[in-house]
Design a protein that fits this description.
Elements (H helix, E strand, L loop, with lengths): L11 E4 L4 H12 L3 E6 L5 H13 L3 E6 L9 H4 L4 E4 L11 H21 L6 E5 L35 H18 L5 E7 L1 E3 L10 H7 L14 E6 H13 L8 E2 L2 E4 H12 L12 H11 L5 H7 L9 H6 L7 H14 L7
Parallel strand pairs: 1-2, 1-4, 2-3, 4-5, 5-6, 6-9, 7-8
Antiparallel strand pairs: 8-10
Helix pairs in contact: 1-2, 1-7, 4-5, 8-12, 9-10
This protein binds NADPH dihydro-nicotinamide-adenine-dinucleotide phosphate.
């Protein structure tokens, strides 16, 4: 089993340290005794950073916060100075955007270029771990019909997303391509990517703007009461994603891309996982809506539910091969039902969903 080797004598950088995924990664790094340089947009914003400083107070490692912005070239230089490993997690993950180029693609792609070109100018850096996504591997679920065995692997690239079709996925594939282009043009540091499916689980801050939480919130706010869209996707516990980053950063032989996905589930199955724990009083879906109905009414429900999206994604199987992450990173996956229940409980506890 490949084991990580933690060399804590040099600091490590986490970009976007305020994020959902990054919080759990910072925690794991502090547990192992690292000095973590956390790059955030505004270190004085305690509403976003207090959970990180509280962790550093009780764990063996140290935390230093630095101000940096993906769109401000060179702004990661101070945070990266002396670091051996860079974890680049920062990237917008939101469905609330008005201009996909400005709000999603530019921060993702220019931000990746900004961080990795800073790595080129920082002699201490030996490895960069980029948080990519399965969105860089496929665009629409119908793309799976064209891949070997109908199962996604690290060999596959998203060739179908664009500024108008799933622009978030487009931002992730363009950002990962940029990362590999920059990595291949030099030989001092190694690039390793983690490509998670939908990340679920509680946040360390108690708050989140990550799209993961907006999706789970729909199970409690009545959105899915009349039925679930017939949509399958991969899911993974946020703590497994943090561990995947630790291993991508510190397993000496780690190479290339790694799908990080625990299980496949549909909206209906995810609703059933929640019902098994929380009972019937919540508006969890009890049936799947037919694809034709989603095609008809989707655009009236949400601007993301275009007829093209329904046609290309609903009623189709979603499968991904996570064996590389298990074999080469030594990653073990936890059941996603536990993470889903903890995530929903946190939404209740923080008042984001209320019993009807
Ligand atoms: P969050 O929204 O919680 O985190 C995104 C982070 O990016 C935040 O720290 C945010 O900072 C930062 N960020 C956004 N724009 C900028 C900018 N212009 N300059 C500096 N920082 C910026 O999302 P997640 O934790 O879910 O996502 C983390 C990573 O994981 C992303 O790369 C995402 O694409 C990827 N991912 C997430 C999945 C999921 O299901 N959640 C699935 C697969 C991949 P601020 O707090 O200041 O807004």
């Amino acid at each position: 089993m490949p084991e990580p080797i933690y060399q804590t004598d040099r600091p490590v950088l986490v970009t976007g340290a305020t994020g959902f995924v990054a919080g759990w990664l910072v925690k794991r790094l502090l547990e192992e005794g690292f000095t973590v340089h956390g790059a955030v947009r505004d270190p004085s914003n305690q509403a976003k950073t207090a959970h990180l400083t509280a962790l550093a107070d009780k764990l063996p490692g140290d935390l230093k916060l630095f101000a940096a912005d993906l769109l401000d070239d060179g702004s990661y230089a101070d945070a990266m100075a002396e670091c051996a490993v860079v974890f680049h997690t920062a990237s917008p993950f939101t469905s609330k955007f008005s201009d996909p180029q400005r709000d999603l693609v530019d921060p993702a792609v220019k931000g990746t270029r900004n961080v990795l070109e800073t790595a080129n100018r920082t002699p201490s850096v030996t490895r960069v771990v980029v948080t990519s996504s399965v969105a860089a591997i496929y665009g629409d679920t119908k793309d799976l019909a064209k891949v070997s065995g109908g199962v996604l692997s690290e060999e596959n690239w998203n060739t179908t997303s664009s500024l108008t079709n799933s622009p978030y996925s487009f931002s992730k594939v363009e950002a990962e391509k940029t990362a590999w282009e920059i990595a291949r043009a030099q030989d001092r540091w190694k690039l390793v990517t983690v490509n998670p499916s939908l990340v679920i689980g509680p946040t360390l801050s108690g708050k989140s703007t990550s799209e993961s939480h907006n999706l789970i919130k729909q199970f409690g706010d009545g959105t899915l009461k009349i039925g679930a869209p017939p949509l399958e996707f991969g899911m993974v516990d946020v703590r497994d994603v943090a561990e995947a980053h630790m291993r991508a950063g510190f397993v000496p032989a780690a190479e290339g891309r790694h799908i990080a996905s625990g299980e496949t589930a549909s909206f209906l199955q995810l609703g059933n996982m929640l019902r098994n724990h929380f009972g019937d009083t919540w508006p969890f879906p009890t049936r799947e809506l037919p694809k034709w109905l989603m095609w008809l009414v989707g655009p009236m429900i949400s601007k993301q539910l275009t007829r093209e999206f329904v046609s290309n994604n609903m009623g189709l199987p979603w499968r991904a091969d996570n064996s590389k992450s298990r074999r080469e990173l030594g990653l073990e996956y936890h059941p996603v039902s536990v993470a889903a229940v903890e995530m929903f409980q946190q939404l209740i506890d923080t008042g984001r969903v209320k019993a009807k």
